[in-house]
Amino acid sequence: MTVDVSPGGLALPSYGRPRGVHPPLDFTGYRSTALRHPKQPLVLLPQRLTEVTGPLLGEGLITPADTDLTSGHPGEPQGQRIILAGRVLDSDGRPIPDTLVEIWQTNAAGRYRHSREHHPAPLDPNFTGVGRAITDAGGNYRFITIAPGAYPWGNHHNAWRPAHIHFSLFGRAFTQRLVTQMYFPGDPLQPIDPIFNSVPDPRARERMVARFDIDLTQPEWALGYRWDIVLRGQHATVFETEVDDHD
Amino acid sequence: MTEGITPSQTVGPFFAMRLPWPDGPFVVPEDTPGAITIVGRLYDGAGNIVPDGLVETWQADPDGRFAHPDDPRGPSAAGYQSFRGFGRCPTAPDGSYRIVTLQPGPLPALDGQGADREVTEAPHLDVSVFARGLLDRLVTRMYFPGETAANDADPVLRSVEDPRRRQTLIARAEPADPGDPDGPGAVLRFDIRLQGDGETVFFDV
Fold first, then answer.
1. Chain A contact present for B12, CB below 8 A
2. Which one of A16, A146, B23, B49 is most buried, counting C-beta atoms within 10 A?
3. Which of B2, B9, B13 is facing A18, going by the closest CB pair?
4. Quick check: helix, strand or coil at residue A46?
């Protein structure tokens, strides 16, 4: 594609601005938002070169062992072994290949391996709880790990986080950067978790929940869960149309 | 067009298990000729430091180009080796972060009407902030103090009407050693205030 840099000719992709999808920055149910959300309104940033490009990370960064969280230790970790697989897509349905996926999670007992974690549940010498993958040409990622546990937190009396796995994604552009959490189906803690319920639209909330997949499940070995991640879509438009919604 | 998008969730208190990389703060190696150091602290609405945040930066190279297929001008002829464009640094127990990089070049942009359509964006970094208590990423920009004319003409800075708020987007030059103001190795300070007095301008990108 040859595009010259002249008025009317600097054709850049633009990305839809999701409305009603992401949680509000000020959310009473999650106490830590109180002093950490901006009070001034966000200023609209037109998408220009810095926003429609982004880091293309990963080549040479990861090894196959990075996708198997049950490996790399002297023995097998405690807990339910799972295969977690899915695709990274944009909202136009296009797979996003060669993009870095980073995850971290608790062990089966609900304990993070982190110095500031004080939950009195056992650490597992055979589980660290971090992984990373690069999507393939079809946008697919795949991890082997163990099912994380629920854990208590100090947000309110008897507060427990539902089991979840943290995900960090880049996509292909700065606009597509996303950090989120993946939840498990049928978890009774989801309806009472402020972080899960900070997402206003119940249908959007359900998109954070993986589904059990018997076809991904491997006999005598591991349960399969499938979870697709959808990032903002790209629409090839001429640069100037972006300016129109600036007012 | 937003149908089906996966919602954001907080990075939580334990992202440091995975996200920091040993060389994350180094957009270029520290001994790269012309390397600059950006330092700053992250503050909450009570003026307290935020020791569990994550700052990421993304920027053009010194020629104002991106090694990315959606930069229609193609990669820089100079081919800045070891320049990653991307920096990532968790905040320390004192709320500080540090990024070592090269100053980006200005960028062409199309804006406005008629003869004023062709404008230039002043050198800048796009900055993402993640933390416990942030349910979604915050986005801001860092501009350079030595670029007064370019900053005055920058369409994004101009879109921030309050001049005091605009100043929150411009780093300050300070000596690397505050006890030796004439000493070598000046750094750029870019503090980020999430809320309250001097609240940083954040963007809807």
1. yes
2. A146
3. B2
4. coil
Q: Which one, of A183, A182, A180, A185, lies nearest residue A212 by Cα?
A: A185
Structure tokens at B34: 């012309």
Which of A151, A183, A225, A232 is labelled catalytic?
A: A151
Residue B156, helix vs strand vs coil: helix
CB B135 within 8 A of CB A27: yes
What's the whole-model pTM score?
Answer: 0.93
CA distance B47 to A115: 25
Which phi and psi (to 5°) does residue B26 adopt?
-100, 95
pLDDT digits (tens, 9 = 90+) for A170-186: 999 999 999 999 999 99
Nearest residue to A242 (alpha-carbon basis) of A49, A42, A47, A8: A47
Cα-Cα end-to-end distance for chain B:
15
Residues within 8 A of A (CB atoms), B 68-127 only: 68, 70-73, 84-86, 107-112, 117-118, 121, 124, 126
Q: Tell me which DSSP letter residue A32 carries.
A: G
Tokens of A218: 């491997």
Question: Phi and psi (nearest 5°) for B139?
Answer: -120, 130
3-state DSSP call for residue B181? coil
Provide the token pair at A184. Answer: 């498990």
Tell me the three state secondary structure of residue A38.
coil
Tallying the residues shown for chain B, one arrives at 205
Give the span between the Cα atoms of B99 and B30, in whole angstroms: 10
* CA distance, residue A219 to nearest chain B CA (Å): 30
String of DSSP letters for B115-141? GG-EEEEPSEEEEEEEETT-SS-EEEE
